[in-house]
Design a protein that fits this description.
- By secondary structure, this protein is α+β, with helices and mostly antiparallel strands.
- Helix content is about 40%, strand content about 10%.
- The chain is built from 20 helices and twelve strands.
- Strand 1 and strand 2 form a beta hairpin.
- Helix 7 packs parallel to helix 9 and helix 15 runs antiparallel to helix 16.
- It is globular and about 75 Å long.
- The protein starts with a helix and ends in a 10-residue tail after the last helix.
- The relative contact order is 0.13.
Amino acid sequence: MKKLLTYVGVWGTMFLLGCQTDILDQLPKDSLSDATVWSDAQASTQFVNGIYGAMPSGFDRNYQGWAKGLYLLDAASDDGDLCFPWTTVNVLQNGDFLPSSSPLPEMWTDYYALVRRSNVALANLDRISNETLRNRLKGEVYYLRGYIYHELLRLYGLRSSSSAEPTGVPLIDKPLSPSEDLQIGRATYDQVVAFIISDLDKAASLLPVKGQIEAGRATKGAAYALKSRVLLYSQKWSDAATAAKQVIGSGYSLFSDYRTLFLTKNNDEVIYAKKFQDPDKVHFGLNNGWDVINSPRSFKGASDAGWGGNVPTQNFVDSYELTDGKKQSESSLYNPAKPFDNLDARFYATVVYNGSTFRGHVMEMYPGGADVTNQPEDTQTGYQLRKFHMEQYPVYTKSSDQDWIYIRYAEVLLNYAEAQNEASGPDNTVYDAINAIRKRANLPNLPTGLSKDAMRERIRNERRVELAFEEHRFFDIRRWGIAQSVLDGPLYGLKYTKTASGITYTRYPFETRRFPSKLMVFPIPQSEVDKNPAAKQIAGW
C-alpha cells in the first residue's frame, strides 16, 4: 500500500477516478469493469473526453486547489504584470523561491495525471470493435499525449548542448503497476522531443482533417501545427518549416477581425482550443472567470469588484509599430503628447489605456480619476488588458466561457517564418507569411531586402504583438536566450497626470525584477522529488 500511495503521489493517478466528465462518474460504480468501459463506444469516447476536459489552459489552470486561471504566465514575462499582491506570481517574477515552495506546483501533478490517463486509453482502445472510431480516438489520444509532454518539456525541461546530464522530463509510455520500478529519471531533451514527434506522426496518420470532426477535437492539422512548434523549440529549423507547411493551405485562414477572433467560437483560424460553454463548463465558478479576474477594481458587481488581473507593461506597449510600419522611436507619426495615436490596430484590441472606452466606460487612470481606487489591486503599469474580454456583460453577471485557443493559424505562419528564415534566410515565403498577418492589422508589408538577422528581429516582434498574452512570450524569451537581458532589471509603466491643458504622460520604472539563470525552467516540486529521487533537479534548482 505504501508503494501504491507513492505511485499515486508521483504520477497523479487520482485523476483516473476523479474527473467529472469521465465515464466513471456517469455509470453506477458497482457496474463498471474494464470490459464495460472499453467495449462500449460511448464510454470510451467519454473517457477520452475526460482527458480533453482536464487539460490546463490559461483560463482555468489550477491554482492551489481553490481557484482557476488566476494569472497567465505572461505576467512573469517582460510583457505583463499582475495586480494581485498575494499570488505566487511575485516570486515567479524573481526566482525567489525553493522547489519546496514552487509557484504553480499543481502543473507537474496535473500533467502527469493526464499522461497516466492517456496511457490507460492507448492500452485499451484497441478493444473497440468499430475501426473508424477506434482509430480516431487513438489518434486523438496520441495528439493529447504529445501536447501534454510538450507542456512538460517546455516547463520543466531545458534544451542543452551537453549530453552529460539529462535535461528532459521522465518519459512514461504505458500504465504502470505498483510492482514496477517507479523510480524514473529524466530522459534527455532530444529523447522527449523524439517521443512527442512520434506521437504526433501517429496522430496525423489517424486523425481526420478540419471539418470532418466536431469542433474542439484534435485534427490532422492540429498534429502538424503542434509538430511545427515542438520542432521550432528544439531548433530543428528545416523540419519545423516542413511541418508548418503541412498546415498552410489546408483549410485554415486568418479570421478577419483580431479583436473578435478570441470571442468567435470555432472560427477558421482556430486549430486547437479548449472548449467552454456556460453553464456546463466555465472558467471559474458562477458569474466569475476571466472577465471578473481581469477587470479593474473600479468595475463593481452586486457583491464584489473586479480583481485587477493581468496587465500589460510599457515595455510591451513600446513594441507596437505605427501605422506606417515603423517603430515608435523612428516614425514621424509618433507624438509623445498623444502616445496612443496611429498605433498598430492590434494595440487597441489588446490594451486598455487612459481615455479608452472599456466595458462602456471611458477610463480615468490618473490620480483622482474614477479608475484609481487606491487599493492594492490598482494597476501599477498604467494599463489594463482588453484581450479576451466579453465587454458587453457587466462583471458578475455572466460566467466567462471564452474558448482558450492553444494553437491558431497565425502562430503556424509565425512558426513557418521563423523556422524558414533560420534554415534558409528571408526568402519570399517568409515575407508572405509575415505580411499576411500584418495585412490583417492594416500594416504595410515588411521592407524588402532584409538580412537574416534583421528579419529575425522583425519576426520576433511580430510574434510578440500577434500572440500577446496567449502564453507564448514566457517561453519565447527563454528559447531565444534573451530572458535575462529583458527581465533582469527595471520594468516600465506609464503615469498619467491631469492638468488644466490635458493629460501628461511619464514613463517610470514600476518594478525591478531579477532573472537568475535557474528561472529558465520550473523546478520539480520538492515533494515529488522526495517520492521519486531519480527525477533530479536541473539548472541550479
